[in-house]
Amino acid sequence: MLKPISFCLLLCLVSFAHKVQSSPTVTFVGDNVSSSPITVAFVDNIEELDGFVTELDSLSDGKITKLLALNEFSAAANEVLHLQMVAGKTHLLLVGSQQDDKLTAPELQDLGGAIAAALRSTEKDVDASIIIDNLDTAEAYPAAHIAYGYHLRDYFFDKYKAVKRGGNSTLEFITPNPEMAKNLYENDLRYIAEGVHLARDLAWEPGKSLYPVEFVDRVKEKLKGKKNLKVRVLDVNDMEKLNMGAILGVGQGSIHEPRLLIVEYMGGDKDKAPIALAGKGVTFDTGGISLKPNANMWQMKSDLSGAAAVAGTMYAIASRQEAANVVGLMPLAENMPAEDAIRPGDALDTMKGTTIEIISTDAEGRLLLSDAVYYAQKEYQPALLLNIATLTGSAVRALSFEYAALITRDIETSVEVMGIGKRSGEHVWPLPLHPNHFDQIASDIADIKNSGAGNPGASIGAAVIGTFVDEDQPWIHLDIAGVDWLEADRPTVPRGAQGWGVRFMDQLVREKK
Ligand code: BES
Ligand code: ZN
Ligand code: MN
Fold first, then answer.
1. Most buried among 58, 154, 225, 437, using CB within 10 Å?
2. Centroid of ligand 1 to alpha carbon of 428 (angstroms)
3. 492 in ligand 1 pocket by Cβ < 6 Å?
4. CB of residue 107 inside a 6 A radius of ligand 1
5. What confidence tens digit (pLDDT) does each residue in 95-120 have?
């Protein structure tokens, strides 16, 4: 017979088995109304306290000043000093906010992330008051950005853990303009965080449970009921009719059929050309017959991060009903070695009517995107076409975790897009696209081949896709292989799947609609 205690344990495990980390409960008020056990305040200069911290300091006979001297705390941005039992507060979290210039929106978001990371180490369920009265920023509603940064960071992929790490967060922001801050967070920024979390969920999920049809179902479920939004799914039959041999070729060796998921969001003027966002969705990349080595192959469960970021972006812009027309295209396939998989040396048809010789079946992302970007142009005549993919190891080696690789046909566009990156909190850095890169993919038997002599790999990958993009089509290519998976925490990102691209593309839509 089960002892009562183990029975209860069992019950708890069962009832929490599918609980996912919930979003923080956030309120904005003009005055301190709650008695949260945790108080959070900012310090930008330890020599010269200001705002609420000064009040607490005098309330405790200068104890805070003394504790600051005893601890190694310089008030550098995102630095946290956790004090206990001081000035009548059980927990007092002092957060460094020093910067050379006024705090930008992404810097405020980082502060929120640093707070989330620190509070998670206090208690399972977090209940905190955050005092916004001394931040040096030009942003009108810094509290909303801090809440957004907190939300971004407060993420756990606990689905397969019996013992969950996350808990609930109740946050009260004490801030000027509480109504406006609430409006910005509740009706806008929080949806970006939710979109990022969706992208991370899809990237973390093992390939066993996330394959093309399952990806489609989950995204459909997430977008259900959104206004101005339509979902279309092309299956194998539809893609055969369109001659999409590149997408079909990649998916051919898997027991899971490929799909092309299309999300149309028409929140702008009816006759305005849309922005098209196409994301690589390889639900698992073994390399195919050109099999990858064992080391780190497990991480190729996140080779759908481009498509996941597009899904997260569509979720964000539809949730906040952006006045824009945006189409998200997600070609989905699993790249497996099998008796019926494509081989090196094969030639694949494409929707464009040209052929691609397969040099490596591991250069599969560019194949998916070749058909997808061509379809996007024919079907939607987009004002701007962007594609995003975990495309090359070359981008990882060139730029590592700091920047996504950005490739366009002209440096002026790249410089403009770098600005969008800075404002979004997700940074990009340009790599070249030279006519020689196109020469490298000339094939003996087909119109092009899917990989060149090797270097520079990121540019060769872009050249393959670029072959399917009209010369005069405004076009942005993003290679996120380096930024996709983080080895260490960032203020707004716990280590692992970053969900990179949602924040960037959301900002792009705001600025380029
Ligand atoms: N999905 C990989 C790229 C990748 C590598 C993403 C590391 C994240 C981390 C892609 O499909 C791939 O295998 N690219 C090859 C292309 C080569 C065969 C031309 C590469 O970069 O090695
Ligand atoms: Zn891949
Ligand atoms: Mn590959």
1. 154
2. 19
3. no
4. no
5. 999 999 999 999 999 999 999 999 98
Of 406, 381, 407, give the one whose Cα is nearest residue 470: 381
Per-residue tokens: 136 = 């040096």
SS3 of residue 221 by DSSP: helix
Nearest ligand (C-alpha, residue 451)? 1
| Substitution candidate for ligand 1 out of 304, 362, 388, 431 with most atoms within 8 A of CB | 362
The finding on whether 394 has its CB within 6 A of some atom of ligand 1 is: yes
Mean pLDDT of the chain: 95
Give all domains of the chain, ordered by start, each with its CATH number: 18-177 (3.40.220.10), 197-512 (3.40.630.10)
Question: 392: Cβ below 6 Å to ligand 1?
Answer: yes
Beta strands 169-174; 229-234: pairing state = unpaired
- Please state the atom number of ligand 1 nearest to the C-alpha of residue 364: 11
Query: Is 366 among the residues known to form the active site?
Result: yes
In the predicted structure, residue 415 carries a pLDDT above the cut 60: yes
Which tens digit of pLDDT belongs to each residue from 297-313? 999 999 999 999 999 99
Tally of CB atoms within 10 A around 240: 12
Asked whether 428 and 421 are in contact (CB, 8 A), the reply is yes
**With a 6 A CB cut-off, is 481 part of the ligand 1 pocket?**
yes
Query: Which one from 366, 409, 503, 513 is the annotated catalytic residue?
Result: 366
Residue 190 annotated as catalytic: no
Say whether pLDDT at 1 is over 60. Answer: no
- Of all protein residues, whose CA lies closest to atom 13 belonging to ligand 1? 362
Higher local confidence (pLDDT), 478 or 165: 478
3-state secondary structure 259-312: EEEEEEEECCCCCCCCEEEEECEEEEECCCCCCCCCCCHHHHHHCCHHHHHHHH
Residue-level pLDDT at 13: 46
Parallel, antiparallel or unpaired: strands 38-43 and 89-96: parallel
Structure confidence at residue 12 as a pLDDT band (50, 70, 90): very low
**Confidence check: pLDDT of 8 > 60:** no
Is the distance from the beta carbon of residue 303 to the nearest atom of ligand 1 less than 6 Å?
yes
Ligand 1 atom 17: residue of nearest CA: 363
d(CA 145, CA 155): 17
With cut-offs at 50, 70 and 90, classify the pLDDT of residue 15. very low
For residues 485-496, average pLDDT: 97
Express as a percent the part of the chain with pLDDT over 90. Answer: 91
Is residue 14 pLDDT above 70, yes or no? no
**Structure pTM?**
0.96
pLDDT score, position 18: 52
Q: With contact defined as beta carbons under 8 Å apart, do 269 and 317 qualify?
A: no
- Counts for the chain of helices (H) and strands (E), in that order: 17, 20
Measured by CA distance, the residue closest to atom 8 of ligand 1 is 481
Active-site residue identified among 292, 423, 490, 512 = 292
